[in-house]
Amino acid sequence: RRLGFLQVPPLTMSQEAVTIETQDLRAEGLLLASRTVMGNVAVTGLRDVVYVRPDTFQPWLSRLVGTQIAAYNDALLDAQRPYLLIGFGRWGSVDPSLGIPVAWGQICGARAIVEATLPNMNVDLSQGSHFFHNMSSFRVSYFCVRHDGGERVNWSWLARQRAVAETDLVRHIRLDAPLLVKVDGRTGVGVVRTDAGDD
Questions:
Q1: In 4-145, at which residue ranges do the beta strands (DSSP E only) sit?
Q2: Most Cβ neighbours (<10 Å): which of 63, 139, 146, 180?
Q3: What phi and psi, each to the nearest 5 degrees, are found at residue 183?
Q4: Cα 145 to the chain's mean position, in Å?
């Protein structure tokens, strides 16, 4: 017989009360909203967004997208600038047809992470399962936003913002006013607003 020990560190959970009302899901200045969110947090001060471009993304390009995301992540880590990350399919998937195959170290600078879908990447989302412990430990919120659901990402607003750097597949934008990220851990509802200065 053999005896093994399993170490299970405790999860870090926020006790702050974060409340999101129904009207918040349709409010002005909304960048995105979701009823499938992990976390319990209110974050202000995010001015950087790294997102995969919906107009050029194709699932067969997922590995290249992951490499480009990693480069932006490293630069933002060096600059000590946390950011919002938005991509398609499952972050961390080993199958490029289902999502973007990255390791945690390639996206670890993100303070909030979004999994979205497109008509050509319409898969069941992971809901953070690949990086659950990392996100819990570092209080990173995780949003799932389907293109055919009630809530959407405001892609046109993102496209109008000035790019710090961009490729044919990925854009890094820096905002003049910070974003507000709110996640209600009791209901699993979350929003990202572009008018954080009003809160």
A1: 30-34, 37-38, 41-52, 83-88, 90-91, 99-100, 110-116, 141-145
A2: 180
A3: -130, 125
A4: 10
Per-residue pLDDT of the chain (199 residues; tens, 9 = 90+): 666 554 444 444 455 678 777 777 888 889 999 998 888 888 899 999 999 999 999 999 999 999 999 999 999 999 999 999 999 998 988 899 999 999 999 999 999 999 999 888 887 766 666 556 666 676 888 999 998 888 889 999 999 999 999 999 999 999 999 999 999 988 889 999 987 544 4
DSSP state of 27: -
Tokens 């209600």 found at: 184
Residue 107 burial (CB < 10 Å; 0-12/13-18/19+)? buried
Residue 142's contacts (CB-CB under 8 Å, 6 or more residues apart) are 37, 38, 39, 112, 113, 114, 115, 127, 128, 135
CB neighbour burial string for 125-139, b if at least 16 within 10 angstroms, e if fewer: bbbbebbeeebbeee
d(CA 11, CA 197): 31
pTM as predicted: 0.87
Q: Are 99 and 126 in contact (CB under 8 A)?
A: yes
| Strands of 54-96, DSSP E | 83-88, 90-91
| Per-residue pLDDT reduced to its tens digit, 69-84 | 999 999 999 999 999 9
Give the pLDDT confidence of 147-177 residue by residue, as tens digits.
Answer: 888 888 999 999 999 999 999 999 999 999 9
